[in-house]
Specification:
about 625 residues; alpha/beta; five-stranded mixed beta sheet; four-stranded parallel beta sheet; 18 strands; globular
Length: about 625
């Protein structure tokens, strides 16, 4: 029941069962047909390959799911697929399976040795197999109220990813916040005396950054937040940030980067202890693995700030290189950032396996509690958002300092590298290599999570740029300097067009045929590292593994919360490279590179420093 729930029926009861199963984060298959149309057969006679290969093990595990892209005239099927966002993307299946059964097809429900229904399959009248899946079978004939649809083992749940809808909502909120903050600072900052009260920082109160900390609380306690805890953190967190950005000492106040850093320190020292006390009654019901939770929290929570600093440093080094070799920066910028992202990708998979999966596999009594798969994927999403934001800001800042054509080389190189990675070009070429050499190119969980993050988290960086541009136009009244100069604006527009084009190409051309090029015998059939379905019939490269079948969407508060650092990162990096005064239209030239540039990225002065003092 934890791995898969097969619901057979049509109507309100079946749809209510599906809704509850999805709400619990479980994998589900809804077979829209009347239960009386199904034939019940013993499983020992049922799991037979129609090519002549028979499985001898009673109640064998099979995983050959239905094809989601098959056309259908069933309005209920199409409605429910749209409602739950059911689709395939880059080797992953999103949402539950919602399928109908043709009039002339045969639905067979498999009865296990102990009498329970343990799977289902559909055959054509000719005997050809359409699909077959193991899982607990529920017949939607009785009221749904008393049926248990929960998932007991969180690691049996699918992986998670952000939906386009929730990311779009987060982008709208961040656009309003960045635009409003910038416009207020542009308009009122110059009139404030040294040490004066900056009332417009109350705009921080609309920042949903506290929701991110609410989501991270589960990594520390194993208990997801409820509405009261989310409301508390969503209120307190922006207020603390507002105070940090408002209070000034002798004309100095914390800049955007340090304000966020202080906010994290506050939440570690105060916010998370409050979360810990709130979650204590629910933690007490099981042996609690404190060290594992602290280590996992350190990677997921504090690691994001480390990635922020690392990408800041890499971009600053590339900008220094540009002074001597402009074209060299264009060629090296994307490979350097991609290498850093690759390291984060492997580390994320390593820590998940070491801290979450390995203790459970070894039968340890104290293991990580809660749904930690959502947090493993969020690390990849934030890392990718930081990498893409760093790349775009570096190009814009370089053209703001001195216009040239190196950005063309950088964008073309980045797009080429991205397509090679996302279309699995190297795995496709692995068939020409010995297995020992080809194995490092074999995509596993980290690569697939990275592929899904690319579809949604490559766009928040443009929110920051458009918010800065529109606030500058609103204040300065000159569209030609919306992003400092026309070349900077062209860089952003071309980057956006290439990002959209890249996603379209990958959606149309992605293939999993490279799976046959690798030896998978070193992974057990139930390994969490698999990206392809593996059952007692073997490996099926046309179907994703259970972890990537029925992929869930992040909760709205999770996406809205980590949309904040994803959107604020480009703003903070741009202020570091060019100076906040120049970004906000108060200074005529970018700040000179050097120690004062770094200082201006940490603390701001009143009035803003323009590099001439």
């Amino acid at each position: 029941a934890d791995l898969n729930m097969i619901i057979v029926g049509r109507g309100a009861v079946a749809e209510e069962l599906l809704r509850r199963r999805v709400a619990h984060g479980g994998r589900a298959v809804l077979v829209l047909t009347e239960p009386t149309h199904a034939t019940i057969v013993p499983s020992r006679h049922a799991w037979t390959d129609f090519e002549g290969d028979s499985i001898k093990i009673p109640d064998a595990f099979v995983w050959q799911p239905p094809a989601e892209d098959e056309p259908t005239n069933d309005e209920d099927v199409r409605r429910l697929r749209f409602k739950y966002g059911c689709h395939r993307r880059s080797g992953c299946k999103f949402g539950p399976d919602v399928v109908g059964v043709a009039v002339d097809s045969i639905l067979e429900l498999l009865r296990g040795g102990s009498g329970e229904l343990c799977g289902a399959r559909v055959r054509a009248p000719s005997g050809e197999l359409a699909w077959q899946l193991s899982g607990a079978v529920v017949l939607a004939k009785e009221p749904a109220k008393g049926m248990d649809m929960a998932v007991r083992d969180p690691e049996a749940m699918p992986w998670t990813s952000s939906s386009f809808a929730s990311v779009g909502m987060a982008m709208l909120v961040q656009f309003a916040y960045i635009f409003g903050t910038n416009l207020a600072v542009m308009s009122y900052e110059p009139g404030v005396q040294r040490g004066g009260f900056k009332w417009w920082n109350f705009i921080w109160a609309i920042n949903p950054f506290g929701l991110y900390f609410g989501a991270l609380g589960e990594t520390l306690t194993g208990v997801p937040p409820d509405r009261k805890m989310l409301a508390t953190l969503a209120t307190v967190c922006p207020l603390v940030t507002m105070v940090c950005g408002t209070v000034s000492v002798d004309g100095w106040r914390l800049g955007m980067f340090m304000t966020g850093a202080v906010n994290k320190i506050y939440m570690v020292l105060i916010g998370f202890p409050l979360y810990w006390l709130w979650a204590r009654p629910r933690r007490a019901s099981k042996p609690f693995a404190l060290r594992l939770h602290l280590a996992w929290f350190a990677w997921v929570g504090l690691g994001s700030m480390s990635m922020w600093v690392i990408f800041f440093g890499l971009v600053s080094a590339c900008m220094a290189l540009r002074a001597a070799h402009p074209n060299m920066m264009g060629l090296l910028l994307s490979p350097i950032l991609c290498a850093a992202l690759r390291i984060v990708m492997y580390l994320s998979a390593y820590f998940y396996g070491r801290l979450v999966e390995k203790p459970k596999a070894n039968g340890r009594r104290r293991v990580l509690q809660g749904d930690q798969r959502a947090h493993a994927s969020s690390v990849m999403e934030l890392a990718f958002a930081f990498k893409e934001g760093a790349f775009l800001v570096a190009l814009v800042a370089a053209q703001a300092i001195r216009e040239d054509r190196s950005w063309i080389v950088a964008l073309l190189a980045s797009t080429g590298i991205n397509l090679v990675q996302r279309l699995a070009v190297l795995p496709h070429l692995a068939k020409f290599l010995p297995q020992r050499i080809a194995r490092p190119f074999r995509p596993l969980v980290g690569v697939y999570l990275h592929h899904q993050a690319r579809y949604t988290m490559g766009y928040p960086r443009f929110v920051a740029m458009f918010a800065i541009a529109t606030s500058r136009v609103a204040f300065l009244g000159d569209a030609s300097t919306a992003l400092f100069n026309p070349t900077c604006a062209l860089v952003v527009l071309v980057a956006l067009a290439l990002t959209v084009l890249e996603d379209i190409v990958v959606l149309r051309c992605f293939s999993t045929t490279w799976g046959v090029n690798f030896d998978w015998s070193d992974l057990s059939s139930r390994s969490w590292k698999h990206v392809f379905a593996v059952d007692d019939h073997g490996m099926h490269i046309q179907s994703p593994s259970p972890g990537f079948h029925g992929v869930r969407y992040h909760t709205w508060y999770y996406t809205l919360g980590h949309g904040v650092p994803a959107s604020m990162f480009p703003c903070a990096l741009l202020a570091l490279l060019l100076g906040e005064g120049y970004v906000l239209g108060r200074c005529p030239h970018p700040i000179a590179q050097g120690w004062r540039q770094v200082l201006d990225g940490i603390v701001w002065t009143t009035p803003m420093y323009c590099g001439s003092e």
